[in-house]
Amino acid sequence: MAEEVRQKKRISLKETFNKYVPEFNDENIFKAQILVAVLIGLLTVVFLWRLFRATSKHRGVLLMGLCESGKTQLFSQLCYGIDVLSVTSIKESSGEYVVGKKSLTLYDLPGHERIRYAAFEKVKKLARGIIFVLDSSTVQKDVRDVAEFLYSTLCDGIIQSGVSKVLVVCNKQDLKLARAAPLIQKTLEKEMNLLRVTRASQLQSVGEGSNNNNFLGRQGHDFEFSHLTPMKVEIVEATAKGGDNLVPVTSWLQQLA
Length: 257
Ligand SMILES: Nc1nc2c(ncn2[C@@H]2O[C@H](COP(=O)(O)OP(=O)(O)O)[C@@H](O)[C@H]2O)c(=O)[nH]1
Ligand SMILES: [Mg+2]
Hints:
Elements: H1 2-20, H2 26-55, E1 60-64, H3 71-80, E2 93-99, E3 102-108, H4 113-123, E4 127-135, H5 139-155, H6 157-162, E5 165-171, H7 181-205, E6 232-237, H8 247-256
Parallel strand pairs: 1-3, 1-4, 4-5, 5-6
Antiparallel strand pairs: 2-3
Helix pairs in contact: 5-7
């Protein structure tokens, strides 16, 4: 008796379905099943890929910039919440930055020209993001060095393939002579535009083709950070000393984690 009722119910459901969606015959249903299976397969692949990326080794954030810009200060504030007495870093140091259940490894790289590249080479494979620190009170006079360092970093092939987000931190905003971020951005972009021209002509004179990572931005346009897509470069103001104004940095790290 109960079986009969169930049978009736099943038939009537099918009949209702056919009544309202007549184009759904058996063949079409088979096609739809295949489509759904393919969709589920694709979604699984995307899900696993995202999971793999999130848990992959790329959980490093490189703190880079010239000497005395405030990298170690920022590193110490972010990882331990304290100021440091300044000592010249000759080796990279690392620390964990915890965001909820996730964590990132911050690498404080030495800014000294003679050792900076060795340290960079060692950890660049692990980079997921870069925090480039500059001293907002001296950037006007050091703009060439700052721009060269940043340009070379962004040209690196490993960085271009592994890093999607770069944060330029205009540090020491507590100082009277500190420039604001929009002005620093303009100054840097102008300098990097000049650098790009000189680098391109140097390469031509040594006979290298144009197929290299050394051209940043869009051909035929003045250099702009916004042209570096898919890499996203943001420029913010901060004060590492005393941890007074670090929200722009911490919220960027949260998005990255
Ligand atoms: N006024 C001011 N001084 C800072 C700030 N951040 C760092 N400093 C100072 O700048 C100097 C260099 O800092 P440090 O972190 O050692 O720079 P690093 O060479 O880039 O690692 C130290 O004397 C810091 O106290 C800041 O936000 N404001
Ligand atoms: Mg240091």
